[in-house]
Amino acid sequence: MSKVDVREISRELLATVKKFLKYRELQEYLSLPPPILWRYISNNMKPNKERAEFIISSLVTKGVLRKIVSDHIRIIGKDIVNIYDIVYNKDLAKLIAYEAYYYFRDTDIDAVITVEVDGVPVALSIAFLLDIDVIIAKKRKELGYEEFYEDTYLSRDPPVLTSIYVPKSLLRKNMKILIADDLLRSGRTLASLVRIIREARAIPMGVFSVVSIGNEWVNVAKKLGLEKIYVMVQLPA
To answer: What pLDDT sits at residue 18?
Structure first.
């Protein structure tokens, strides 16, 4: 992650958070006067490295980004969560990427992988921020590629066998991979991605998800031997 400009990230993070909070609220979280915050946000001034790290750490560890994202989650009946408004909102997608950056900033990552469809904006936002490749597992074979890694799993709602495909030329041996998703529930999609990554002899470095529901996926992750997992918003089953 050394190629990431932490000073620029902190400035962009402040500018994005300001779209949801007032200067007074930012001052409470950061103990920085509004004129200083204004210079960073509106005058394109970058804080020094130490302050930049403080700004990012404070906004993440105090749950500011998590609360903003959580406030946009819509619960529609039992076990139905609509997060469309989150993953397809460019500013919320940025906040998600900043959170992922903070928790995986010391992890060596070559690419982020996800399964189409709603995981794509999450993976793209993270990949753009970290300046790494993005790999999208699709439910059909993409034209222009001849060889694929393939895995099949039982989808939950409705129960149906689902196959996903990743071109072999995109996922290579020893690549260090971050798995990104919009929602973790059963863990079946997660397990399918891990099987593909390991078949390619690449290395799953961690998992980032915007939302999780219940704990069923936790047992799956443990069986897969995944250790570094971060979920932004955890909801009960």
So the answer is: 98
